[in-house]
Amino acid sequence: MxxxxxKPIAIIQGVGPGTGxxxxxxxxxxxAVVLLARTPASxxxxxxxxxxxxxxxxGIPTDVSRESDVSAAFDTIHAxxxxxxxxxxxxxxxxxxxxxxxxxxxxxxxxxxxxxxxxSGRGTFLFAKAVLPLLLEGVGxxxxxxxxxxxxxxxxxxxxxxxxSFASGKWAVRAIAQSLGREFxxxxxxxxxxxxxx
Length: 198
Hints:
single chain, alpha/beta, six-stranded parallel sheet, 5 helices, globular
């Protein structure tokens, strides 16, 4: 049996040296954190830092644009509660980036264009589909309503020249977040999209 946590968890996707790590540190002050990134090198330093500061962290290599990776990660997550039970998930953050291409539109290949959608749109769909059942189960079990957060960029609301691929993926994240907020807010899950450039 792997690690288990006796307190609610926060799942942070897209943990790297910037925003994802900052989010993980903040949530680790109150919750055990599960860190998802494509490679262990992306989350190992912040996981070690959280552990050395007395927190609990577990990293799982996950490419959220791959359904098999998301399924495997959530199989692990489902056993993180006390004695291998499902944990209470207090929060989940989709901080996926990927698919960044800056190129004139007429020079974009189909693969480059779809890369923005695969990393952002498809990844958001797969992550949300996997985490929402856990968030719904957590309604009324933690101090605050379960929360699903999506980070975006200015490209979520304004496409710029040479950013058609990136902007389309970011708009997809925002659209999914808005739809999920309207569907799951009345069921007790807070859903929000925040523009965070940097």
